[in-house]
Amino acid sequence: MHDIRAIGLDPDLYDRGWAARGLPPTAAGLVSLAEARRAAQTALQKAQSRRKDLSARIGAARSKGGAGGAESLMAEVETLKREIAEQTEIEADFAARLHDRLADLPNLLAPDVPLGADETGNVEIRRWGEPYAAGPTKDHVELGAALGMMDFESAARMSGARFVVLRRELARLERALGQFMLDVQTAEHGYTEVSPPLLVRDRAVFGTGQLPKFAEDLFQTTDGYWLIPTAEVSLTNTVADQITDEGLLPLRLTALTPCFRSEAGASGRDTRGMIRQHQFAKVELVSITTPEQSAAEHERMTACAEEVLKRLGLHFRTMALSTGDMGFASRKTYDIEVWLPGQGRFREISSCSVCGDFQARRMNARIRRAGEKGARFAHTLNGSGLAVGRALVAVMENYQDEGGRIAVPQVLHPYLRGLSRIGADEG
Q1: In degrees, to the nearest 5, what angle opens at C-alpha 320 toward C-alphas 322 and 316?
Q2: What gap in Å lies between CA 214 and CA 226, rounded to an integer?
Q3: 324-337 pLDDT per residue, tens
Q4: In whole angstroms, what is the distance from residue 157 CA to residue 160 CA?
Q5: Which residues pair with 280 in a beta bridge?
Q6: Which of 68, 131, 205, 420 has the highest CB neighbour number within 10 Å of its CB?
């Protein structure tokens, strides 16, 4: 959410920022709406002040026995009542229109975001490891079916497309991956584990930027709750409507939760396998920081997500997203893409974003230095550390052998009671 006062002070700055996202000039219309609202507020305040003055004069006239004068004043009060009601409605209409316009506008981008029309403009920052090169490879769907542990047909009968049933060792491997990721982020990277709600109200999803613009991408219950598309929603909203002591920052939170997405905009894309599911598990990372800390925290968060892939021995690259591929609430985003030999390409497994004060303004999340009276808006960051289902896919495809068995990465052995291979020999 943007500050209309800041837009009024430098409308060109905002128009240039939105132009980088392909939007037309917008600031002048917002400023005009704000001016119309202020004019309505001024008229309303004048009418209210006049009514208060008349009420006092009516009381004085009655106390002196001047009934005729009081009646004249009362007639004017009745006229003012209608005027106040009209001006109240006009002011509320301008306020709602301004709020809705501001709520639909994306965050301004950081100056160093690469220019580009879409994902083809993304820039590789670094890569780690080497691609899998051990002969012919199968994708995870073939591998899982041959093992009898990945069942899309049963899932489709009960839930439809974009669901899967995992069995036996693959179900254990998925659970082990999530636990391993949580342990790395909590024990080594200083994140506090949280078990948050999976159902949230409108205000929570509005705060992180999914509503109102992206409602079709979410699942909603019949009684007004939204299923979280990511634990970012729940974790970030723990500071909503709060003033947090800056001495406690950066506040680093993590959670392993199911996530739910309708994938409304992904019709026909990634229909095969586990890449794009309606329900999936993810370890989320969220940081609440001061404005001065947020850029460094973004680099740190990205490194925390990369470290999981390094421990798993998975080849990856880190990309800076271009202006045409950025998320609604983000100022700057790094995508981490893991190599999937079954597809012969890199696929996103983590997206780490710094949002500045954009989300904090929407959810009224403020911070304050000890001993100071004034508060300012926090900066928020979020990232995946990692998407568990895609990590499972990456392990299966990268650690397969010619017989279709899956070697278990060494770091996961303690989570699987020493199981080192999934397949005929140990299945």
Answers
A1: 135
A2: 12
A3: 999 999 999 999 99
A4: 6
A5: 259
A6: 205
Query: CB neighbours (10 Å) of residue 206?
Result: 21
Phi and psi for 411 in degrees, rounded to 5? -65, -15
**How many domains does one find in the chain?**
2
Query: What's the one-letter identity of residue 409?
Result: P
Q: Residue 416: give its domain's CATH number.
A: 3.30.930.10
DSSP string, 243-263: EEEGGG-SEEEEEEEEEE---
Grouping H, G, I as helix, E, B as strand and the rest as coil, residue 128 is: strand
> Structural domain of residue 45, as residue ranges?
4-103
Residue 114 token pair: 């690469």
Query: What SS3 state is found at 14?
Result: helix
pLDDT given for residue 426 in this prediction: 46
Q: Are 219 and 260 in contact (CB under 8 A)?
A: yes
Task: Point out the residues of the chain with pLDDT beneath 50.
Answer: 426-427
Q: Closest by alpha carbon to 246, among 403, 379, 338, 341?
A: 379
Question: Backbone phi, then psi, for 36, in 5-degree steps?
Answer: -65, -40
- DSSP label at 275? S
Closest-CA residue to 151 (of 138, 163, 137, 139)? 163
- With tokens 């992206």, the residue in question is 214
Q: Residues near 28 by Cβ (< 8 Å), separated by ≥ 6?
A: 11
**CA-closest candidate to residue 138, choices 278, 376, 344:** 344
Instruction: Give me the pLDDT at residue 427, please.
Output: 39
Record the tokens describing residue 5, joined without a space: 């006062």
14-20: long-range pairs with CB below 8 Å, 24+: 14/108, 17/108, 17/109, 18/105, 18/106, 18/108, 20/109, 20/113, 20/115, 20/323
Residue matched to tokens 């012919």:
136
Residue 400 DSSP label: B
Q: What is the CATH number of the domain that holds 19?
A: 1.10.287.40
Q: In terms of residues, how long is the chain?
A: 427
Among 58, 76, 103, where does a domain finish? 103
